[in-house]
Amino acid sequence: MAMLEVTELGISFGGLRAVDELSMKIEEGGLVGLIGPNGAGKTTVFNMLTGVYRPTDGGIRLDGENLIGKKPHEICQMGVARTFQNIRLFPKLTVLDNVKAGLHNKITYTLAESLFHLGSYRKKETQMNEKALDILKVFDLDGMADYKAANLPYGKQRKLEIARALATEPKLLLLDEPAAGMNPNETAELMETIQLVRSKFGVTILLIEHDMKLVSGICEYLYVLNFGRELAEGTPAEVLSNPEVVTAYLGE
């Protein structure tokens, strides 16, 4: 059984068919890319996988469990985390507190404990601080733990968003254009980071990306969307040499 199994997935917005009959299988530990031209429906797929949109038809299963009809926080608790095409950090919070926000998926306390620092509040806060710092060390951000997130350079903000997602302890990590806006050096560093994340945290990764150097450098398998439908699938070498894929990207 594949970790993630998407079967004939589709969604309509009024008369617009945004995604149509998409099927994918991603094995545990895989690093898979979802690519396609702008407007192909890639982020819409992520929104369906995470419960932001409810599919019009089709199926989504994570380790055999149905995700359709679940709320986003329930899907997160089941083991799916994501980042966003446009960075969505808590800009006025510290780097450490951004990661701790993700840890609240696993470590909780009551409102009274939070307001009056009662019971196990201090112990749990200490646990969260330690765990958040451990995650930040993986991204070389532990030295910036007290910085406001808004004051980080762009590339480090991208890393922080991945770190926050990992704090929820996902089985499946969805990365939406993680290299967007990065220069070549930052992209090369990001490629190493993604591979490190997979090996260190044991997560399965599905990423949307337009940087074909990154895609071909780290992805093991690709799915290509065009106008909401699957255009091609296969290894990066197969897909990126496919004439239909080249035409879809270049418009020739």
Describe this structure in words.
This protein has 252 residues and is of the alpha/beta class. Helix content is 39%, strand content 23%. It has 10 helices and 10 strands. The strands form 2 sheets. Strands 6-7-8-3-9-10 form a 6-stranded mixed beta sheet, sandwiched between helices. Strands 2-1-4-5 form a 4-stranded antiparallel beta sheet, covered by helices on one side. A hairpin with a 2-residue loop joins strand 1 and strand 2.
Shape: globular
Share of helix, binned = 25-40%
Main β-sheet description: 6 strands, mixed
Unreliable stretches covering 5 or more consecutive residues: none
Strand % is 15-25%
Number of strands: 10
Q: Helix/strand/pairing class, anyone?
A: alpha/beta
Distance between the termini: 39 Å
**Overall mean pLDDT:** 92
Record the strand order, biggest sheet: 6-7-8-3-9-10
Number of helices: 10
Order of secondary-structure elements: EEEHEEHEHHHHEHEHEEHH
